[in-house]
Amino acid sequence: MTSAHLLRLLRHFSWWHWLAISLLLVLLDYTVLHTSRIIDQRAGDVLLREHAKRRPVSTGVVVVDIDQRSLERMNEAAGSWPWPRSVHGELTDYLARQGARAIVFDIHFNEMDFYRPEHDQAFAETVAAHSNVYLAMALQDSGSGGPMASMIPPAVGVTALPGANPQTRIPVLLPLVMLQHKQPGAMRGGLINFVEDSDLVGRHYLLYKDYQGWRFPSMPARLARDLGWPLPQQGDRILLNWRGGWQHVSYADLYEDAQREQPRRPLMEFKDKVVVVGAAAPGLMDLRLTPLASTYPGVDILATSIDNLRAGDWLGEKPRPLVLPFIALLLGSIAWLFARGYAPTRILYGLLGVNVLVVAIVWWQLGRGLFLPLFAPLAWGWGYFWLCALLAYLKERQQRERAMGMFQRFLDPRVVSDLVANGEINTEVNAESRQVTVLFSDIRGFTTLSETRSPEAIVSLLNRYFSTQVEIIFRHGGTLDKFIGDAIMAFWGAPVNDPDHAKHAIAAAIEMAEALVRFKAELTELGHDFDIGIGLNSGPAVVGFIGSRDRLDYTAIGDTVNLASRIEGQTKGVARVLVAESTMLLAQADFSYRDCGLHHVKGREQEVRLFEPGRLGTSGNGS
């Protein structure tokens, strides 16, 4: 499809047609395609980042960070990573003594350490000795391996849904170190699966995950159940309410303090707090893409989800289809404003105001714990606005081209474009009454002239004569109405308002008479019988495009026009130019006048007083 075809297609439909098409595309997007969802996601990320900066560090959850410093400092005591699991056992004992309400490991213990089984044994016994230790699990999306559902210890917390098969093998990573060392009751924990949205960004955290009729709780949900925190009533996940930072404590600092006979850290430092142990060191590769950063530590994601359930301040979110009425209202309002002829710039400013208001509402609701997906509707609004702006431009250009094509027949082509651009003439405006001055000019002696020359010569002569006269009319701001045989009709005062229409019309008539003298000189002896008569009258007339749909003419009609034609008929034997008294009075100070007396004109009972105008200092132009 060429650009010309595209433009014709765009112009073919109205605002309302394109509104219907746009709303159909919106409905398709929100129910099937979901292509605009990424707009809600990415724009929401910006607000979530700003909102997170304003939320203080949690007082209820602490992250024990296996950072790069810990990897370096622990190298002498525990060797290179992964450390013997007895190290984690010693830290667990220390955290328990410090009053931690729950100790959560964001580390998998699904594989045995065959070279250091005694360390696994020590760790398993330590975890079994503390009922507030929770271990990480992960449910894989596919796989044929894994334990049968009937073999999973009750401590894991898996529940059977209706129709669940106990023989189903489930691809789940469990802390098998506990099972290997005969501590199945210590396999408390939950899933720490990372959840990606459609754009691969992690914004949610699971509450549970199902596999062939078996439901596994997530780590935050397991803690909520055991510690009595409220859980959402619906849905299998929560939208995370991020914080700008966490209280991070270096793993190495705590481990070193645990080895001292006299610990230096505050007593009961972690009283009633949930302590999450995990790795933020870049080399351990537990970094994820989130709204806050492209390399956000997985342990901080887990800490966020736990803190959200602990405080009950996770973010609620409205289903995207609920905003469809708002989109319909927004697009409908834009279509209505364009259809009513409002300027695109005014509509643009209004749309900007709507954007500011919507962002303010989303921000306000975010502070109240609710995320509203209102950014994609704004994008649809902008898309429809620019479509309508293009349609308005094409419509205006079409009207301008039409106006220029029409008015160039009646006005000086050099000024038509300026008048159209300034909106002073418009083909859409209906005919209206205007105060105008009408001029009729007719050739005398044309019959005698045509008898002595060939038709081709006569046509050439008339073209030269008309060109000269029309140029004078245009130069004085007149509008050429039509050629009637060998006569010319023109008027002043429309389509552009001209308060001096009588003055300009008389000036044009005088110059037309003077131009005739020069033209007669060029005809030599053939110009003896060639002459013109010009009649002018001023008054009200109906002016505008008049005619059929396929054939329009910009013309003036009314008694003022008829009288001007009759006055032209009175010029023979009196003067080349005659004006009605109404015209003379409008330009009395600009010209000299010779009173030519009262004349009886056809169609009028009362006689009409006529005047011959001349330049100031003269008495007329002669007959």
Automatic annotation (TrEMBL):
PROSITE patterns: GUANYLATE_CYCLASE_2. InterPro entries: A/G_cyclase, Adenylyl/Guanylyl_Cyclase_3/4, CHASE2, Nucleotide_cyclase. CDD domains: CHD. Residues 437-568 form the Guanylate cyclase domain. The chain crosses the membrane at residues 15-33, 322-339, 346-364, 370-394. Keywords: Membrane, Transmembrane, Transmembrane helix. Pfam families: CHASE2 (PF05226), Guanylate_cyc (PF00211). It comes from the Bacteria. This is Adenylate/guanylate cyclase domain-containing protein. It comes from Chitinimonas prasina.
